[in-house]
């Protein structure tokens, strides 16, 4: 299926991407609309075309999509049409979300390996830049046993032209940026990287100084959102319902961005909003607000709604 050239009203804002300029990415939940994350099979009510058009019209040059929505889009439209849609709207950066269970055994591993095959196949055919990886759930542990598995993942991603990024999460075995860095360094593959999420880092009880001096070559991407300084009683409810636009909460988003910039990082900046009020907005307006918040957070310019 081919959609042809986009209507001029939905083409991205004038955001020329020059070599070395940072990418601005609407991560998968930012354009997903009225869907509740947390369910591995959760799907967006928005067709991929509406999501790409919303991201482009807002000014983004990158977008994320999760596996269930990816499967629907590929079945409905085909890989060539999806790639043409992205190209026609100036979306030059694509990330695929997410792979869990990659270091497990038994039935969980069977399911994970099937998901891995889907992600790798899609990454190769769509020209994806990043495949996101979730660490195993559970108490913090030595990352040593995970190194070999992660190195294999990195090699497989490199074979299809993508990078693997692991996001440290406080309730997982890889809970901090330092542990994630140990893992990717242990894997020793240039396609291995760390996804630094300011909200997740705050929920690990860490301040922005933890990313000061973080080696930029090992950063796969950065994700920004906001929320309360104090964690909610239920981590998952807090994570899926109260992660707000950058600059609209109590976290030190500006300090986080400054710490990374002073470390030499300025490549991929994503905005990840998982908020009950946000997802009730029309996807076009929601994505516009997300872009304004991301620009304000990464440039110091005020948001348009302030």
Automatic annotation (TrEMBL):
It comes from the Bacteria. Gene3D superfamilies: Divalent-metal-dependent TIM barrel enzymes (3.20.20.150). This is Sugar phosphate isomerase. Pfam families: AP_endonuc_2. The keyword DNA-binding does not apply. InterPro entries: IolE/XylAMocC-like, Xyl_isomerase-like_sf, Xyl_isomerase-like_TIM-brl. Residues 52-277 form the Xylose isomerase-like TIM barrel domain. GO terms for molecular function: isomerase activity. Keywords: Isomerase. SUPFAM superfamilies: Xylose isomerase-like. The keyword NADP does not apply.
